[in-house]
Write a structure and sequence with these properties.
Keywords: Cobalamin biosynthesis, Methyltransferase, Porphyrin biosynthesis, S-adenosyl-L-methionine, Transferase. By secondary structure, the chain is α/β, with parallel strands linked by helices. Helix content is about 35%, strand content about 20%. The chain is built from 19 helices and 21 strands. Helix 11 runs parallel beside helix 12, helix 13 runs parallel beside helix 14 and helix 16 runs parallel beside helix 18.
Length: about 500
């Protein structure tokens, strides 16, 4: 039996999506989503999920509501589970009630997954509590755009004008002059504070505060457009005092992340927490190698090695994966010294129950070799689980120091088939300020996907790079590095972006 889930996507911030909504997105057969639903959520869909866009914005309907209803029913009758993803809450100006009625008429099972509505969330992110003891004890949610086919308006302007409630208007920017006039004509004081919040809770959020008599002119002057929430009432006076979200240091800054998708989450999360608009553009993918026979042989012969040197989190991940495949665990490392290049690699080892014997102060091969020599690695048998293709300086220098070194490929990196169009359009629109590179391969693959001649045409885009080797590769393509952290880590990179 098929089922239709009317799912509230929340106002846009991915952290405000409910756990139940994510569960439905991950398991549905068909995804039907709106303009205001964050497209980032689509990455959680199953690989074989059918994804259909039916967005509506400002009168521009990709598919009218009656056709959307027909589409939902058609897909459900194919025996599929449908996620109907709607911005905010499906039952708060989301026409979810109409869709539910159609499903009942068609005899189709359905479930409603409520979402956080923009009328509460957007003001909260702009420092405006919709209720407050010092200002009001009630709030009224109102559509700013009524059904034009209705014979009589559902608005009672006399009640709105004389009430002390906070008024929250959805979809009302085009009608802002009319809304302000009707409220003043019906008793609301001209000096009543009014706030507009555009793209509330997202990295592109903007807000402003004016008064009822001036808000229409002020909003037009500042170019406020849909989608915006309009808030009327004394609580808007708290905007400047409580506006926490718009104080984020990277708010609105567009940052392209070129790391492999498997590795990007840490950087994406940190940048997002600082307010950045992150464009994930993985230029490499991390893949299994075709044959693990040599890896299994090396693991079974670990007792013959003195040192294990891990150069990346992926090296740890794939090495442990094969160790578990042959039925072994961390106990096999007893008596072997372990080195980790970089704090992230060290953390990955600690998660496996291994506290590294050596972590270099700087995370490039030359410094690693010096540190290992001070630890007495000379003459030791050394195993280096790593990518199939990587810099050879570490094994070469260790061999020169008299070590018996075996390089053990446990994974490989390949060029990712990223969709360059989204990043290209963002750059054309001036929405991208930084492109980040964390390895030479990310640089090489980026310029394979976006030729240097094209990249030069996008003004105002700076390059941020981790490590001298990566920066050298950037220079080879004819570009300068504007942001270069002293500490070759993801937190170090973000710190430098904050200073720039």
């Amino acid at each position: 039996m098929s089922k239709v889930f009317l799912v509230g996507a929340g106002p846009g911030d991915p952290g405000l999506l409910t756990l139940r909504a994510k569960q439905v997105i991950e398991t549905c057969d068909v995804m039907i989503y709106d303009y205001l639903a964050n497209k980032d959520f689509l990455k959680w869909c199953k690989p074989d999920c059918e994804i259909l866009y039916v967005g509506k914005k400002g009168g521009d309907h990709t598919l009218p509501q009656d056709k959307i209803n027909e589409l939902i029913i058609e897909k459900a009758r194919e025996g599929k589970d449908i996620c109907r993803l709607k911005g905010g809450d499906p039952y708060v100006f989301g026409r979810g009630g109409e869709e539910a009625e159609e499903l009942v008429e068609a005899g189709i099972d359905f479930e409603v997954v409520p979402g956080i509505t923009a009328g509460v969330a957007a003001p909260a992110y702009a420092g405006i509590p919709v209720t407050h003891r010092d200002h009001t004890t009630s709030v009224c949610f109102i559509t700013g755009h009524e059904d034009p086919t209705k014979e009589k308006s559902g608005h009672n302007w006399a009640v709105y004008g004389q009430s002390n409630s906070t008024l929250v208007f959805y979809m009302g920017v085009k009608n802002l002059p009319m809304i302000a006039k009707n409220l003043m004509d019906n008793g609301r004081a001209p000096e009543t504070p009014v706030a507009l919040v555009r793209w509330g809770t997202r990295c592109t959020q903007q807000s402003m505060v004016s008064t009822l008599e001036n808000v229409a002119a002020d909003a037009a002057e500042r170019g406020f457009k849909a989608p915006s929430i309009i808030v009327v009432g004394g609580v808007c006076s708290l905007h400047d005092k409580l506006n926490w979200f718009e104080k984020k240091p990277l708010l609105g800054k567009g940052v392209v992340v070129t790391r492999a998708r498997e590795q990007a989450s840490g950087l994406v999360d940190i940048l997002g927490a600082k307010g950045a608009c992150v464009y994930e553009f993985p230029t490499i993918s991390v893949e299994h190698i075709d044959d693990y026979a040599d890896v299994e042989t090396a693991i079974l012969g670990l007792a013959g090695y003195d040192w294990l040197v891990f150069t990346s989190v992926n090296g740890v991940k794939f090495f442990w994966e094969q160790m578990e495949t042959v039925g072994l665990d961390t106990r096999i490392l007893g008596g072997i010294q372990v080195a980790a290049i970089g704090p992230a690699t060290a953390d990955a080892l600690r998660e496996k129950g291994v506290n590294p014997d050596f972590i270099p102060e700087k995370y490039v091969a030359e410094h690693v070799v010096d540190g290992l020599l001070k630890k007495g690695i000379q003459g030791s048998r050394v195993l280096i689980p790593r990518a199939r293709v990587a810099r050879e300086i570490l094994p070469e220098k260790l061999s020169e120091a008299g070590c018996d070194v075996q390089v053990l490929p446990v994974y490989e990196t390949r060029m990712a088939g990223s969709d360059v169009d989204a990043v290209r359009e963002a750059m054309k629109a001036g929405k991208v300020q930084y492109v980040t590179f964390t390895s030479s391969s990310t640089v090489q693959n980026f310029f394979e996907l976006m030729p240097p001649e094209e990249f030069k045409t996008y003004e105002g885009v700076k390059i941020a790079s981790i490590g001298p080797i990566t920066s050298k590769t950037v220079h080879e393509y004819g570009f300068t590095v504007a942001v270069r952290p002293e500490e070759y880590t993801i937190p170090g990179l973000v710190e430098e972006l904050l200073k720039d």
